[in-house]
Amino acid sequence: MKLPKNQKIVFEAASPTEEKTFEQLSEETELKLEHISGASFALESQGLISITTLSDSKPSLTDEGSLYLQHSLPELRLYQAVRLLGELETEFDLSQAISQSSLNKNEVSVALSNYARKDYGTINQGKIISSRDFDPKSDPEQVALSSIDQGVEPDQSIVTRLESRGLININQLTTRSVILTKKGISERKKGVKISQSVTNLTPQMLSQGNWENLEYTAYNVEAEAAPYIGGRVHILRETAERVKDTLVSMGFQEMEGPHADSEFWINDCLFMPQDHPARTHWDQFALSVPPAQNLPTDIVEKVQNSHLDGVGTDGDGYHSPWSEDVALGIDLRGHTTSLSMRYLSGQAIGHLEPPQRFFSVEKVYRNDTLDPTHLLEFFQIEGWVMAENLSVRDLMGTFTEFYRRFGITNLKFKPHYNPYTEPSFELFGEHPRTGELIEIGNSGLFRDEVLHPLGVSCDVMAWGLALERLLMLMYGFEDIRDVHGTLCDLQLLRSTGVPY
Ligand code: PHE
Fold first, then answer.
1. Bridge partners of residue 127, in order along the sequence
2. Does residue 267 line the site of ligand 1, with CB under 6 A?
3. How far apart, in Å, are the Cα atoms of 333 and each of 88, 341, 362?
4. Residue 266 pLDDT
5. pTM of structure
6. How much distance in Å is there from the Cα of 484 to the middle of ligand 1?
């Protein structure tokens, strides 16, 4: 029989009695692994060989795991430090034990969370006790680290534990091996020649015209190919687009405006007293650029009056200092409610008559501490409805309808305080994996102290929702850093689709 060159080589290297792996064949024949693989699948489809696939997983140490292999696990180092301080069952200062152990900051938290779990003793109110006498070298997790390093696999339960501690990675291995079939054995006895069939058409074949007479190797469309990972739109961006489409379909129009804006639009219009703690650098990013110009003087004056003396017969204002210099300072906006102020004031696209509905899905910036649910910047879904006689019921109904369109039906509402809305409430949704209630938004009806200076005389209900939190409810991830920044989970970003 005739076979293309690579197939002939593999066919002749395969054994009638013993399975040979692709790797073995590659070594024996000096063909690259992908050629062995291509040829083997082609031979298999002709019934000449059979291929066996075995999947196995093999643990290997991460950088952190290797470090602890060398220096031993942090909790063991803490244990040893406590033992050096004195007797079993004796209370010592935790801080003393920590400095004795020379663990770094990160290792300290690892040590603390594992010390009690492993029953080494107890840690309570700054005191530490060791209550077990044992040889730290015999700690099963420590022993497992060195077995894994030497290629010996420990107990499954320890493997799982070490993986959850991030000390090892589990690598999936697939081994394929081939053996001749009966048909293969008899065909091989008859002898194999190299067929002249070609796999690649060359420009020469075309120009010389002999392409017409050649024999071509058939494509094996069932052969395994490397996964193709193309670029795609980030799920956050995709979801933002879906949110925009949803709000447009609910009759809203989109607002736009500056990321860096005067404190006037960001805070003062919102009846946030100038000495409010949220207006300090602890919360917001101030820019060292020249102050704002061209603020509408009539509105500035009304906003100032609202702060000083309030609005209406019941209003009293804050009576706290108000200076235009503060209002003119430029910040990165901490919420997109600055856009709502610009639009409601008539300064963005002119005077607006009720009813009106507006939204934006834009970035905001806050000086927060990074954690699984907070970033220094995030996307806010801002929105407002201007109409006569609005109530909290209208707000609740709007949210119920909006989130329903994303499959989220179990919203919870909690009364809240904002300087600029009354009444106000926060929205919560249930995390699909942990069942935890997470805050997804803040809302309310704008106060007269906000609306009057802007020249609005009917009701306005408004909100700011977090796009990233909506994403968490939709896809069930737990750490916002899975979708943003250098720690993001590429697998999640590649495989998550945004359903419409
Ligand atoms: N600005 C609020 C926030 O960032 C959201 C909000 C907007 C609340 C409008 C009420 C009215 O949390």
1. 93, 124
2. no
3. 56, 12, 10
4. 96
5. 0.63
6. 23
